[in-house]
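1st attempt posting a full record on here, be nice pls
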Amino acid sequence: MYELSTGRRVCSKTIYFVLTVSLILLLLLPVASARDYSLESADVNVTVSPEGIVHVQESLTYRFEGTFYEVYRQVYPPPGGSIENMQGYLEGLPSDFYVTEVYEGYELVCRLPSPTPEQVTFVTSYDYYGGLKVYNDISELHYKFWGDEWEKPLHGLSATVTIIPASGSDITYWLHPDDYTKTATINDNTVTVQADKIPANSWYEIRAIFPRLTSPDPRYVTMYDQNAKFQIFRIESQYALKQKALYVVFIVYVLLALSLLLAPFYLYFKYGREPGIAYEGIYERELPYDSSPAVVNAMMKGGVGDPTIDGFAATVMDLIHRDYLRIDDSDPRNIVLHITGPEREKGDSPGLLDFEQDVLDLIVQHSDGRQLHWKEFQSRLKKGTSFYNFINSWNKKVKAHIDLEKLFIEKGATKMDYFAGILFLVSLLSLFAVPWLGDSSAYPIIEKLGFMPIIVAFISPVVLILNARYRTVLGRWTPEGKLYVERWKNFKKYITDFSDLKEHPPGSVKLWDHYMVYAMALGVAEEALRHMSVIVPKEEFRTSHFHNRVYVTGYSSDFSHAYQRSAPRSSSGGSRGVGGSGGGFGGGGGGAR
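the predicted structure (as tokens):
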């Protein structure tokens, strides 16, 4: 009897232990399924040799959540120069390093061990030939420690620049944008820099001048037959003066901006509160309306009727799903789009709306032999301003397919437009005294002004833009429009709720693919794909158009970068080799996948 009782107690403890562990695992499951990475730090060491070769060694520390397969760094040669001796490894870990060519540059890649470490340091080194500029009177190093192609912010940067052919008293240097600089010192011929957090898609650079190399060799440096010292000092003085002016304007305009802070609250409570509707649904397990992905994106993720770049990306995915295009992503580094069906004249594909036809025509235009290499396509879109102009025109066509009057009442938003417009006209009287402001990447304070209603001269048009994009804040939905929005919200909830998806999965992979198109339009493609890869049997999952996570998760950001890079840019001061802030070589980007 005693032994039997003891056995039961042991059995009960075992069951209790198993249940406890199972409960803990279930609680940790959402955390474990998260997939993201951060850039903890960058340590950049730049050495200028006596011949003028610029040697760079970088140590980039990543922190991972979830599974990643490789880290990569994109570098580009200076104009007219080259990059040599590219090497890389993972600090303290087995390293499988290789280099691939990308448009106008190189990608340095290291495969990660499995399982993915919590933290790795990716060390790379390479030499720039032609990066150092040599003028008649001075030598100039204008180098970007950090480029604007990184999707993630950098938490901290340390850098040293050692100029072997110079001494400390002969070196003059500037850092751009200085807002990021924490400390900067010079000891003999080495400049040491510590920088605070650098936001995503932002750059940070040094410009240093020192005595002219005694016998410059055009194989190693870029030579200019001109004097540059005075011009560089003039450009840097203008930069510093403009920086100070922006902070003065920030303080002066704060009082005027108070009215813009209060007006939206008043207009919201009077005009913006939503109507009640008799809809109590929790999930929508089928597409609630027969709306195109771009229209859904314009209503749900952009402003009312104004799509985001996800809407464009979803339209391309929809063309793939509907077999106007076929994607070959067997090699994630060389994804190819194939144009299917018979050859047709431009604008002559049956079953497509005009804006969908425009997207197909754009792809056909850039194809070669009815196929298109993805990386080459992205690189082409970044050149010139044609893609930027295309997207702006395309957005208007999407909006024309939405009957906004039936769905939305704009009275409160319209009053905000008038109010912000009047304040903008008043602010113009002061703006005439403000020098040309330049690019927000060179002056981060401009970006702050764009997000904070403080400087009236800039916050008024920003309010107008935000009010146009987020019309639902001060305007309100009609009952019909409210129902439209709520049903799409519940569909989004369905495709991102793992438990409900597992219990009520779509009936086929083809239907999964259709839902994935709308997941991209709603901005939740990565989460939906992660659930799909777990729920759908592997054999069926392989037949999906969108099974490759590397392709889908970076898909929208590729178009976003192309759109940003193709936007018209203001030219910097200087001529014949003397560039303004942001004109240094180096930079580039990278990430993990």
